[in-house]
């Protein structure tokens, strides 16, 4: 596939016809729908073809996409990625890699993620802000990015990947260490200075970290509260808490975080408290159920994963059943990149309705990122981020997990991926957009 067929920066008005609309609000699908975006990449209509404005009134060129009866959905979110890291490449060895190759490989991962249907990603550690700018300015194709840049952790905590003697081989891109309330505030300030869109903290130990366990507590509740307050003083930036064991999850919720990442130990009490405070849960099931490989991971990591997958099944199934505010995140890098929407299938396996899973990956995720005013649903006035897929995702949510089924991706009104059959009239019509229908 050549770049020319898949990546174009020119934007025209768009009209998707002959589509089945799943708009991300949870509303029933609309058969024979039309979606229209203007030349600025803003949706002007999404609904039944019978009520659609007639084509031909556009002031500039119009690109018509015949969906051929396929389903059109909002561009999806992945709220928990690590795009700067290859799958299975431990952050502790980053300094051994050629930084130029890391940059090219990261650009490839951004492309793969976009091709998987993810038009917006939130990176929770390791991705510098240059990538966000590179996407924003059209230098490289990729999901629009929010990045935490680094992760705030205690010495020896989940994001401290130094060797036993303290030698740092991570290249300094991963961790911001803090061990007191004051140091926690300083760590936030340093991270915001690096351009972070949000702050990521470690409220517990983890699976891949060598020195701690998922049930170990991370930042103290008063340190978490200081982090949240420091973010409040900087425009109310969200705080994402890596939190796996129950005690740390409770510390994070009481400390005022925006989202619980992983949340495997989210027991009934923690779930209730999260509900009261409106805290989002990002369960990253892809790494729990899709990332277990005895041969590819260190022994300590493998044993932790097997033990925690059972706990996760019970707790996240309860959270789904009770209608927790669940957003889509994968922890990609711990699981393979470019297969992000497999997460939808894992949510459905734990009892979520396919339509609810789609809402989790679109509208609820947009709410978590503070972007719901312009992304996450397909209604007039929103940004034209669209995905067209083969198959029926409401009958088999698994179709979205295979990027081969994601036949068209539109971002900001620009067609970023187009695998639609060339026989269909997907080309740009005359510059006056008046071709007879
Ligand atoms: Zn992570």
What does this structure look like?
By secondary structure, this protein is an alpha/beta fold. It folds into 2 domains: 3-74 and 376-418, Urease, subunit C, domain 1 (Roll); 76-368, TIM Barrel (Alpha-Beta Barrel). The chain has 11 helices and 17 strands. Helix 5 (221-232) runs parallel beside helix 6 (246-255) and helix 6 runs parallel beside helix 7 (268-277). The structure holds zinc ion. Zinc ion binds at residues 80, 82, 124, 331. Residues 71-414 form the Amidohydrolase-related domain. This is Amidohydrolase family protein.
Distance between the termini: 31 Å
List cofactors, ions and other ligands: zinc ion
Counting DSSP E segments of at least 2 residues, the number of strands comes to: 17
| Radius of gyration, CA atoms, in whole angstroms | 22 Å
Could you estimate the helical fraction of the residues in percent?
Answer: 25-40%
User: Quick one: CATH superfamily of the largest domain?
Assistant: Metal-dependent hydrolases
Return the string of H and E elements.
Answer: HEEEEEEHEHEEEHEHEHEHEHHHHEEE
| Biggest beta-sheet profile | 8 strands, mixed
CATH topology of the largest domain: TIM Barrel
Q: Enumerate the spans where pLDDT stays under 50 for 5 or more consecutive residues.
A: 1-7, 424-437
Number of helices: 11
Q: Kindly state the mean pLDDT as a whole number?
A: 91
CATH class of the largest domain: Alpha Beta
How many domains, in number, for the residues?
A: 2
Strand composition percent: 15-25%
**Approximate shape:** globular
Query: Pairing-aware structural class of the strands and helices?
Result: alpha/beta
